[in-house]
Amino acid sequence: MKSDYYKDLKIYNSLSGKKELFVPINNKNVGMYVCGPTVYNNAHLGNCRTFISFDLINRYLSHLGYKVRYVRNLTDVGHLENDSDSGEDKISKKARIEKLEPMEIVQKYTLDFHQIMEEFNTLPPNIEPTATGHIIEQIDSIKLILESGFAYEKNGSVYFDVLKFNKKRTYGKLSGRKIEDMMNNSRILDGSSDKKNPQDFALWKKAEDNHIMFWNSPWGKGFPGWHLECTAMSRKYLGEYFDIHGGGMDLKFPHHDCEIAQSESITNKNPAKYWMHTNMLTLNGKKMSKSIDNFILPNEVFSGNNKILNKEFSPNVVKFFIFQAHYRSVLDISNNALLASEKGLNKILDGFNLISNLECNDKSSDFDVEKWVSSCYSRMNDDFNTPMLIAEIFECLKFINNVYLGSKNLNKKDKEKIKHTLEIFLNDILGLKTKKEKNLLDNKISPDLIELLIKLRNQSRINKDFKLSDQIRDDLLKIGIQLNDDKNESSYKMI
């Protein structure tokens, strides 16, 4: 294990509502299940935030020395519009709109999701099971729930009996919702529903004649309910009781509450020791959602082809922007916020790339490196507090800059320690790319052209056209040319 840092890791458990010391069930082995996307459309940035956050968690646990089995599912059937128990499957609906086979839709958007995750430099999960690949397991799970007495069959569909379950155990323990409140806020069934109560949810739905995706079952032709797949697949690959179950905050209710109820019906135990939830990514102060047309796709951010932002931003910048807020905090995306992140990331990369060129000696350093390293781990051990970790990184790079200017001293041993630690946290844990992103113009722009642009910029400064001056400086920086301003002139260096 990585020194003794692993002993201090605390995780916020949504189930208890507090931070708890992380103690894996099985010594150095960690099982983590994260609810993946429903692959019926492009993943928006709100979706990506969840998976980037759990990639960070996976990376950090692995860095500490744990052997992580990271399972993230793909929902490719059974997810109804508005997460209801009736209506049209999201994938089937999309297939009808695009005039494609449902599995063509699944393949198309699965590839898109994987491409985006790769651009964000996230590691793939160890196992990525699909709902359609585990129909047998889901049918077997339904049989076990029926045997427990907490489900009933009606007209070819099978429903979970929430009220009956709640009499013996507690439904809604994760979200904190009370069954009485749910009943008071529910509409009375109109008689057309097969459900006993409005709170009941589908384990298996009978397929109507026009339904495209269906399978044979003991209850007739149909398809599984959305909540069921995660119960069946987490149990198969991680066992009846595993360490971490994660997902977005919006999954607490009903999805995760339903998962817990299903698992407790089968095994008499909550499936996970720690429940972790990422918060929303908002846009213009509102939840990012396709249903209300308030969302932005990653590729639209990367290309600048959108109506919200003034310019394009790289995946590296967007990822850094996400890490500047704690994963449990609401984060609002805006042009100014991304610009600030871009500026901050460039400062970090400039400082990091400066370290190798520092002239050091064997004197004592004006910086307590061991204390700083310990602080970095303390920040991450405090429920993966990336904003505070980034603050620690900035503090170190401020010192590095002073060493470069000659006002502070750094010896060779501490220099290597700082460089190694920054590589760990920037590359291995945050998953950021520390090499300046290449541009088509790299090594192809002539010195004469650079000098011409510098003259133009100097003239704009004289004319107090600071907008143009800043634009030239920023555009040159993007292609690896850093300007250093003096009172009367500017010089440049390739970075």
Please characterize this protein's 3D structure.
- This protein has 495 residues and is an alpha/beta fold.
- It contains 16 helices and 15 strands.
- The chain has helices at residues 45-64, 90-98, 102-119, 135-148, 162-168, 179-184, 226-238, 252-267, 298-303, 315-323, 335-354, 369-381, 386-405, 412-429, 447-462, 466-478; strands at residues 10-13, 18-21, 29-34, 67-72, 151-154, 157-160, 201-206, 222-224, 242-248, 272-278, 281-283, 286-287, 331-333, 481-485, 490-494.
- The strands form five sheets. The protein has a four-stranded parallel sheet with strand order 4-3-9-10, sandwiched between helices. Strands 5-6-7-8 form a four-stranded antiparallel sheet.
- Strand 9, helix 8 (252-267) and strand 10 (272-278) form a beta-alpha-beta unit.
- Helix 4 crosses helix 7 (226-238) and helix 11 packs across helix 13.
- Residues 439-443 have low confidence and may be disordered.
Number of DSSP E strands: 15
Annotated CATH architecture of the largest domain: 3-Layer(aba) Sandwich
Helicity range: 40-55%
CATH topology assignment of the largest domain: Rossmann fold
CATH class of the largest domain: Alpha Beta
Number of helical segments with 4 or more residues: 16
In what order do the strands lie side by side in the largest sheet?
4-3-9-10
Question: Kindly state the mean pLDDT as a whole number?
Answer: 91
Output the radius of gyration. 26 Å
Please state the overall shape, judged from the principal axes of the Cα atoms.
globular
What percentage of amino acids are in beta strands?
A: 5-15%
Superfamily at the CATH H level of the largest domain? Answer: HUPs
